[in-house]
Design goal:
alpha+beta; Creatine Amidinohydrolase, Chain A, domain 1; 3 domains; 19% strand; protease; Creatin/AminoP/Spt16_N
Length: 610
């Protein structure tokens, strides 16, 4: 029997409770004079992973995905989810109470425009809504002839009788050798940026950025070493870190005291008002800051600057120490993954393995490194048709055997103190059909196109995204997710602001780490995704070039399953890249694994022509 320490497989969705809980919420809304309410999957920081006390959407609807929003009216309700979660939402939600609405068909705001009755009062929690989000809701309500109302105290919390307490995980200090820069120097850089942008203060509402700035880590949410916290940095003078004091040991407090004031989070609103007084301009991070803080700034006579936090761009461009740590983490993780792949190749053909078995064994190999801190997200382990569910999370209820002549998709990652990993491989069990090999190879060609890309300084992710799709497009195919996301250094596996996506407008910069993960999904049949992490590095020096060039260095070290490849579809340049990559995997990972795994690795990384 296999087991996992860092993830569970119990299906916490409770669609049967949706009707009763919806009734309780509607009664509370009526008591407050509201005709509807917005329930986002969010906490006050817009975190991807939230503590149990902030899982309001899951409690109300049963949907456990990482993104979605419910709109509750007196006589109808809907949950809007993106393409990753349409199948999952339909399975987890009581569809008699909640209509499952794909984001591709309509946004929450458009749904509100067409469903909110004229004259209705629609509520939202200003702690859980960004400035941009509030403006969209206000326009939608006005278009419908309704009124948008900010609530004082979330009505879901009022009827959630057994709501968990907020987390109090201890805060730890980041090893200076891994951080590569002191917190004092980071704060000085932030304050310099505030001066250059003519800003008087910055509210850091993203705990990832707080953690990076102050060189601290925590454990308040699963999968990401976050201390839930806030910070206020003035253009001049000492910053303030707002964090529950119960999370701080004397040693941590002593280390932070020389660089910042320490205050309880309940004092944040007043501090923001004081920073804004006298007409000061305060930057709020448009991606994470709650609209409540914008209201406090304006009420104090200040000016809200709603834009990208300067910390986000600094944090995204890793320094040399952080990149060295990431490389070390990926070599260690590559060895654990090689052990898993060798084990899988031996055991899967025998029959009897399940999706959960694979997750547990891969986690076990990572734990055996002796330094695994956590996984970086719940592993996606999809056999056959389950692999076509983009963000499928295996549970005891959905656990499927891994069968011959099917594809198996495993997307997983790890958190080590020196770096964060994220890797996807699609494995052939038995023999792949001609169609499977065609789709696999088209995805691989797109992956290679990104990995080999050379592009001018200032290029955005949107400009590169089509590189990954071109060979699928040529066959009338595509995939409904971004090609890549940013990745933190022992922080979030999904880090902004840059990404490889149709809507990725932030220019790529040296030191950024992004995923390269094109895919293809045939509903009810199989899924394919091939993912490595890439560092943005200096590009080649070309005689006569008129632009500074950038390129990618591949971090992830794991072989691609040769049984899924149709060599005739690859160009000579693509085969050369693949053979060179596999040779590097063999050279760097081979010495780190046991003899049986090394033999398997030699065969798995042999040149494609052999």
């Amino acid at each position: 029997m296999f087991d996992a320490k860092f993830q569970t497989f119990a299906d916490s969705a409770a669609p049967a409770l949706g009707t009763a809980r919806l009734k309780l919420l509607r009664e509370e809304l009526e008591r407050r004079g509201l005709d509807g309410f917005l329930v986002p999957r969010a906490d006050a920081h817009q975190n991807e992973y939230v503590p149990p006390c902030d899982e309001r959407l899951a409690w109300l609807t049963g949907f456990t995905g990482s993104a979605g929003v419910a709109l509750v009216l007196r006589d109808e309700a809907a949950i809007v989810v993106d393409g990753r979660y349409t199948l999952q939402a339909a399975a987890q939600v009581d569809t008699a109470s909640f209509a499952v609405v794909p984001l591709a068909e309509t946004t929450p705001e458009r749904w509100l425009e067409t469903h909110l009755p004229a004259g209705a009062h629609f509520g939202y929690d200003p702690w859980l809504t960004t400035v941009d989000g509030e403006q969209k809701l206000r326009r939608a309500a006005a278009t419908a002839g309704g009124v948008l109302v900010a609530v004082d105290g979330n009505p879901v919390d009022a009827v959630w009788r057994d709501r968990p307490a907020p987390p109090l995980a201890p805060v730890t200090l980041r090893d200076p050798a891994l951080a590569g820069e002191s917190a004092a120097d980071k704060i000085a850089r932030v304050q310099k940026a505030l001066g250059e942008q003519k800003l008087d203060a910055l509210v850091i509402s993203d705990p990832h950025s707080v953690a990076w700035t102050f060189n601290i880590r925590g454990g308040d949410v699963n999968f990401t070493p976050l201390p839930l916290s806030w910070a206020l940095i003035p253009r001049g003078g000492r910053p303030t870190l707002f964090i529950d004091a119960r999370k701080l040991s004397n040693a941590v407090r002593d280390a932070l005291a020389p660089i910042a004031e320490i205050a309880e989070p309940v004092l944040l609103e007043r501090a923001v008002e004081m920073a804004a007084s006298g007409g000061a301009t305060v930057r709020l991070d448009q991606a994470t800051a709650p609209t409540l803080l914008a209201a406090r700034i304006e009420a104090a006579g200040g000016k809200v600057s709603n834009g990208v936090s300067p910390v986000a761009l600094m944090q995204a461009a890793k320094n040399a120490a952080e990149l060295d740590g990431m490389r070390s983490a990926h070599r260690r993780d590559g060895a654990a993954l090689a052990r898993f792949l060798a084990w899988f190749d031996t055991e899967a053909p025998k029959g009897g393995l399940t999706e959960i078995d694979a997750v547990c064994v891969l986690e076990r190999f990572r734990r055996e490194t002796g330094v695994l801190k956590d996984i970086s997200f719940p592993s996606i382990s999809g056999a056959g048709p389950n692999g076509a569910i983009v963000h499928y999370r295996v549970s005891e209820a959905t656990n499927r055997p891994i069968r011959p002549d099917e594809l198996f998709l495993i997307d997983s990652g790890a958190q080590y103190e020196d770096g964060t990993t994220d890797v996807t491989r699609t494995l052939v069990v038995g023999t792949a059909s001609a169609e499977m090999r065609d789709r696999f190879t088209r995805v691989l060609k797109g992956h290679i196109a990104i990995a080999r890309a050379v592009f001018p300084l200032g290029t955005s992710g949107a400009q590169l995204d089509s590189f990954a799709r071109q060979h699928l497009w040529a066959a009338g195919l595509d995939f409904d997710h971004g090609t890549g996301h940013g990745v933190g250094a022992y922080l979030s596996v999904h880090e902004g602001p840059a990404r490889l996506s149709k809507v990725g407008t932030v220019p790529l910069a040296r030191g950024m780490v992004l995923s390269n993960e094109p895919g293809y999904y045939k509903t009810g049949a199989y899924g394919i995704r091939l993912e490595n992490l890439e560092i943005v590095v200096d590009g080649p020096v070309i005689a006569g070039a008129e632009r500074t060039l950038l390129a990618f260095e591949t971090l992830t070290l794991a072989p691609f399953d040769r049984r899924g490849i149709e060599p005739a579809l690859l160009t000579a340049e693509e085969i050369a890249w693949l053979d060179a990559y596999h040779a590097r995997v063999q050279a760097e990972i081979g010495p780190l694994v046991d003899a049986p795994t090394r033999l398997w690795l030699e065969a798995a990384t042999a040149p494609l022509g052999r």
